[in-house]
Design brief:
single chain, Adenine-n6-DNA-methyltransferase TaqI, Chain A, domain 2, Restrct_endonuc_typeI_TRD
């Protein structure tokens, strides 16, 4: 941000996380600038008319999805009330940390009701919605609110008094408008670049899946004779490959059907479906048990290192290789696939991480929206097995392809993270007065519709 100059003069704000602010900016707690969660008693309209309805999942950064309407008298009793021009912000984790905040615009009859996990900030005359929208995305505000959350687990919320008493500095309305215009322009540009990177990541993942799927179902020689596999979604496979069920080439162990007993200082990791992420064993939110419970949970056998963990639901089909350095047992809805021949593990793993498993799950779901597999459905997963020499060549090729695609995906993920950091830093610098934007104007090559929107 070296292209932007600081203000000519600053003063000490007296607030540790705010530091120095432009000399002419006014310090005030948010409660003096906006009304937090207006009372429903302030609504004097017709309760029979329709309003917009906003569940939590439809509040995103800079966007409120308005595709639901309900009569006001149906929702006024149990939901959060807001109007056009209000700033909406999630108050529950992880939506708050994800910066799910937006300005309410285009509400049906100018009125909206939504999730009780949404905080509503209604600007007073001394602040505009655009400036407030960006102000509550600023880093120090996010940090203070996050560290002050109360509640347990995934239901932690930002207390109202933390928001109300958070002290900010703000310029006069024309300057607020200028800052909001600048941030509208710059964040739109950054968001477009982020979207490009995210599209690239998805395309790379799709391409990786397609290449792996072709290798493990069609082989590397396009000239070999083919045969009907007998499985609709699998189609033709090399004529000399065997079509089998997973149970024919593996021992499959299901978890014990009992409620796990976790111990704070336990020595044994209880592997749950949430611990299998991106084909790796994740220790995030790890839970442990003691020796006694470990022996109960492993009556059917300790998952051997190098075998494959498989999740039956939440979601189905996540897999990872069992590590050799973590004492562990399986939790509920987990399965362990132990290939009869350990040399087949890489091929089976690649098959399960291709889109073949996705197609199988879809074929078994029969239109159901609940994505889970029964034990017998896992046993009967169809797959093809090439001769050992051919399998080794496929394993090597797929391994190299995975490394290449993973490198490209990581590069895009790093670029995306840097863009998010840039966006956050730019917002923080603008709304805390670290850069002077009073003379800023949109570049001359800015598309006309965007410039009209900015100046509206």
């Amino acid at each position: 941000m070296s292209q932007f100059k600081p203000y000519p003069a600053y003063k000490d704000s007296g607030v540790e996380w705010l530091g120095e602010v432009p000399e002419h900016w006014v310090l005030a707690p948010i409660k003096h600038l906006a009304l937090l969660n207006p009372r429903k008693s302030e609504f004097y309209g017709d309760p029979e008319q329709l309003c917009s309805f906003v569940p939590m999942e439809k509040l995103k950064t800079g966007c409120v999805l308005l595709d639901e309407e309900r009569p006001i008298n149906v929702v006024i009793g149990g939901y959060t009330y807001f109007e056009d021009g209000d700033v909406l912000q999630a108050k529950v984790t992880p939506c708050f940390e994800n910066k799910n905040v937006a300005i309410a615009k285009g509400l049906t009859n100018g009125i909206g009701f939504g999730s009780t996990e949404i905080s509503v900030l209604r600007p007073y005359d001394s602040i505009i919605s655009g400036f407030l929208y960006y102000r509550v995305q600023e880093d120090s505000y996010m940090s203070v609110c996050t560290s002050s959350m109360i509640g347990a687990g995934g239901l932690k919320r930002v207390p109202a008094d933390v928001i109300n008493n958070f002290k900010v500095a703000a310029p006069a309305l024309p300057e607020q408008t200028q800052i909001a215009r600048f941030l509208d322009h710059e964040t739109a540009r950054i968001d477009a670049l982020i979207e490009e990177q995210q599209r690239l990541i998805e395309l790379l993942k799709e391409k990786r899946q397609a290449v792996i799927s072709h290798a493990v179902t069609k082989g590397l020689d396009p000239s070999v004779p083919m045969k009907d596999s007998g499985v609709e979604w699998l189609g033709e496979v090399p004529a000399h490959w065997d079509v089998v069920r997973l149970k024919n080439i593996s021992r499959i162990v299901d978890c014990k059907n009992r409620t796990p007993e976790y111990v704070d200082d336990g020595d044994y990791l209880v592997v749950r479906t949430s611990n299998i992420k991106k084909q790796q064993l994740s220790l995030e939110s790890a839970l442990y048990t003691d020796r006694n419970n470990f022996e109960i949970w492993t009556e059917r056998g300790v998952p051997p290192p190098g075998s494959i963990f498989f999740t039956r639901e939440a979601p189905s089909g996540e897999v990872c290789i069992v590590p050799d350095d973590v004492p562990l047992c399986m939790g509920q809805r987990m399965m362990n696939i132990i290939p009869s021949d350990s040399s087949m593990t890489p091929f089976i793993f690649d098959f399960l991480t291709s889109d073949c498993l996705t197609k199988y799950i879809e074929s078994e779901a029969s239109g159901s929206t609940v994505v889970h597999l029964r034990v017998e459905q896992v046993y009967n997963i169809p797959l093809v097995v090439p001769p050992e020499s051919e399998r080794d060549s496929i394993d090597k090729l797929v391994g190299e392809l995975k490394r290449q695609y993973e490198t490209l995906i990581k590069q895009s993920e790093v670029s995306t993270a840097l863009l998010y950091e840039r966006r956050s830093a730019l917002i923080s610098a603008a709304v805390t007065g670290k850069i002077d934007l009073r003379g800023w104007q949109p570049p001359a090559n800015t598309p006309a519709p965007l410039r009209e929107q900015e100046t509206a």
